[in-house]
Structures are given as structure tokens and as C-alpha cells.
Amino acid sequence: MLTFIGLGLYDEHSITVEGADALQAADRAFAEFYTSKLLGADVADLEAYHGTDIEVRDRPGVEQDPGDILDAAEDEDVAFLTAGDTMISTTHVDLRLRAHDRGIETRVLHGVTAQTATSSLTGLQNYRFGKATTLPFEYAHGGDDVPVSVRDTIDANREADLHTVVYLDIKVGRGPDGDDPDHEEYMTADYAANLLAEYYPDTLGVVVARAGSPDPLVAADSLSALADREFGDPLHLLVIPGSLHLIEADALRDLAGAPADLVDE
Where in the chain are all domains bearing CATH 3.40.1010.10? Predict the structure, then answer.
């Protein structure tokens, strides 16, 4: 059995009760933290709280050579852990399909996602979000601006009157100079707003920082104004809203400090 468990958004307490029970009952536990990471807990915290050893795998160990994970799951109850909700990344879907090819039973135990937390914290209605996109560091895509694919997603959503979640790049184990096991870099919302303001300077943006933590932050303003602010520790993301329902506009004014002239347009 291979059980995929979402750890939630922030620390060792963010997992569901069902997920915690499954993790503690597993014979072995593997994890990856290159697609996302818990900023409020490290592996030692997870191991101490759940009373189990956790074997962390890097990207090649999951995507290219997951043999030891699958071998273990053939004969034992194995847990595979990710931050947020599992199966959000195609990496995890691929691992599940490989398990099925080998006749290994799988199950999925969900955790809170950044997108659902974003809807809850901002007051933007969940059914009005369109396709999400990820804004990479310039060195990661070989350019010095916002990739066309990111702008196309934002533009298509705005044309359809939908909100866009812009996930911000995370680089763990790989930096500007290539592979570096000690490298950790998290794009901040002000950095992202500065990049996007070149194309959407007066457009309303909403920052969500540290969703799931004891001190989440939500801030709304023009992208050019957000580019000049600091939002504290990661993780951050940005939302580019479509047109706002009256309740959404009220929520952004009251919960995120949005200027009235931007939300009343």
C-alpha cells in the first residue's frame, strides 16, 4: 500500500487527523519538499511529533528513480508526504501511476491547499478562480521578464472575468549556478509584483503571505504599490482578480486594506 498524505500548509500540526493516523501507522515514510515546503516545521519536527522516521527524497529520487519507494510499498504500508495537498503536482500523479503499473494499491489523504486558503483569507469566491500559473525566477526560464505563458494565463482569465492565482517560484537544491543542495530561495510577493507591474502597473493585486500559519497576511493594492512593500517571511503568492462581486469588494477593503478606488471600479 502506498498512501499519499498532504501535510497541510505550515507545520507539523497542519495535517488532518486521518493523515496523522495513517502516517503513524505506516511501516515507512518518504517525503519530498522541492515542490513546496512547510515553513513552520522541519523534518526533525515532523519526526518528533509523529513518532516516525521520514526519508526525504530529492527530485531525481522521486521522478527518475523512485524504485526504493515502490519496492517498499509492494510489501509494506508506505506513506509519501508532501506539503499542502498531495496530487497537486504531476510528480505525485506520476508516482501513483507507477505504483498502479506494479499492482500496488494506493490511496490519497488530502491536506489544505494554498488556493483554497487564499479564497478563505481574501474573501474572493472560490468558483471564480480560473487557471493558475507560476511565476519563475528569471534565471529559471532564461529570460529577464515575465514569461509570455504567465501573461497569457492572466490575460485569458481577466477576459473571462476570473481571478488568477500566481504561485511564486521556490528553488530548493538548485540555484542560478546549477545544482546546490544547500540552496533555498523563495520568491517574495514584492519581487513578483515588481515584475508584473511592468505589464499591469495600475492593476489590482492581492498578496497572501504565510497562509495556514498563526500570522497570515493579506494585502491588496495596485501591483506597482505592492512592489514597494514588504510582506515578511515566506511563503507568498499573488492573486490578480477579475471584476469583483460586491461582497468580494467589501472583503478586500475590510480584510486586505484595498483602496476604494481600485475595488469600486
Answer: 2-109
Check residue 134 and give its pLDDT. Answer: 94
**C-alpha span between 36 and 250 (Å, rounded):** 31
Is residue 265's pLDDT more than 90?
A: no
Distance between CA atoms of residues 240 and 122, nearest Å: 12
Distance of CA 21 to the CA centre of its chain: 24
C-alpha grid cell for residue 104? 500496488
Write out the three cell numbers for 244. Answer: 469583483
Report how far residue 158's alpha carbon sits from residue 243's, in angstroms, rounded to the nearest whole number: 8
CA dist 30 and 250 (Å) reads 44
Residues pairing with 35 in the sheet: none
Please list the residue range(s) of the chain that carry CATH number 3.30.950.10.
114-263
Domain formed by 2-109, architecture:
3-Layer(aba) Sandwich (3.40)
Q: What is the pLDDT of residues 193-208, one digit of tens each?
A: 999 999 999 999 999 9
Residue 261: pLDDT over 80: yes
Question: From CA 102, how far away is CA 251, in angstroms rounded?
Answer: 49
**What fold does the segment set 114-263 form as a domain?**
3.30.950
Residue at 6: amino acid letter:
G
Are 248 and 124 within 8 A, CB to CB? yes
The model's pTM: 0.87
Cβ–Cβ < 8 Å for 78, 27: yes
Least confident of 42-46, 116-120, 174-178: 174-178
What is the reported pLDDT for 99? Answer: 96
